[in-house]
Amino acid sequence: MEQRRSPLLALALAAALVLTACGRPDALPASAPRAHGPVRAADAPAPSESPAVPADVTLLPRFTRTARGRSGDPVNVLIAGTERQIVEGFDQAGWLPADPVTLWNALRMLKAGVTRGDYPTAPMSTLFLFGREQDLSYQKNPRSIIARDHLRVWKSPVFDPLGRPYWVVAATKDIAVYWNKTHSTHRIDPDVDAERQLVIDDWVATGRVARQAAYLATEPGYRGANGEGDPFVTDGRVVVLDLVE
Question: pTM here?
Answer without folding.
Answer: 0.76
